[in-house]
Amino acid sequence: MPGPGQVQSGWLNRAIAALPKGERVAERGGLAVGTTPPLVLRGGAPILGWAPSGMAAPTDDLTARLMNLYAHRDPALASALQAGVDADHMAMKQGMDGVKAGGDIAAAMHKAAEGAARLISADDGPRIAALAFDGWDTHANEGGATGRLAQLLGGLDGAIAAFETELGAHWKDTIVVAITEFGRTVHINGTTGTDHGTGTVAFLAGGALNGGRVLADWPGLKTADLYENRDLKPTTDIRAVLKGLLADQFGLSADVLARTVFPDTLGVKPMSGLVAG
Is the confidence at residue 65, as pLDDT, over 80? Predict the structure, then answer.
């Protein structure tokens, strides 16, 4: 968004809502993976929610009773419950009824990505998904080649690999974007971690990409080159990257991207050449 403030919808949901009526991506909506839908996918466009579960599944009788209760008392909640039931049935069709969330961070990330890939590769599944992986706020004991951050990055690597494996032939049409809302300071703090910073990095993966490249106007890490003498200086607007992907992958116009998906961003031009021709 152009400035701070409370936001009720995310850019990815707004992108789905902006797709032409009858577009199969829009009809199938988005998939939010996790116990709470990531803000990036919340909004007016339809979404399904799924999370690896460690709990026993409710019986059909209990589900039917709840549906009947909500239908008479709270239609909005009944609609949300129906969406959850639909997602659960879709997961069971893909053989995912036994997927559990337990284990270490890397294993949990792997399971979430694996499940998401199975759902979006299904013939009747959504085509857009958002996964939120927490735990990256490394103020203390961040570690270097080993440690907490290395474990998280290893988990992310494994999650993307699992996503590719489960998608199979659909990988060639897929783009994965790994982004965070802020970077870290260049120098370590007093608890062998790093604090909130400015410039960061985005990772793009997928068979639909024109990949194998590092795209950067590298500002340098000398003290004189840092932003406010502490952070990596940002040189690329992440919205330009996302606009370029949405334009080439889904055909959204520059005007829709600048006014609806990312409001008040006419000055941020879509980055070209990211998607393979």
Answer: no
Summarize the confidence of residues 57-74 as an average pLDDT: 74
Q: How far apart are CA 8 and CA 28, in angstroms?
A: 21
The encoded tokens of residue 163 equal 């996503």
Whether the CB-CB separation of 90 and 125 falls below 8 Å is answered with: yes
Phi, psi of 207 (to 5 degrees): -70, -15
Rounded CA-CA distance 165/254 in Å is 33
Model pLDDT for residues 77-101, shown as the tens digit of each residue: 777 777 777 766 665 565 555 444 4
Domain spans, the chain: 11-174, 204-277
Distances in Å between the Cα of 4 and the Cα atoms of 1, 254, 261 are 7, 23, 16
Burial state string for 15-44 with b = 16 or more CB within 10 A and e = fewer than 16:
bbbbbeeeeebbebbbbbbbeebbbbbbbe
Cβ-based neighbours of 227, under 8 Å, separated by 6 or more: 198, 199, 233, 234
pTM across the whole model? 0.81
In contact, 124 and 90? CB cutoff 8 Å: yes
CA dist 163 → 3, 57, 170, 261 (Å): 33, 25, 10, 26
User: What is the per-residue pLDDT across 183-196, written as a single tens digit (0 to 9) for each?
Assistant: 999 999 999 999 99
- List CB contacts of 38: < 8 A, sequence separation 6 or more: 10, 32, 130, 131, 132
Half-sphere exposure for 257 (CA within 13 Å, toward CB): 22
Among the listed residues 238, 245, 235, 243, the one whose alpha carbon sits nearest the alpha carbon of residue 274: 245
Q: Which two tokens stand for residue 86?
A: 């639909």
Task: Using alpha carbons only, give the angle 129, 130, 135 rounded to the nearest 5 degrees.
Answer: 150
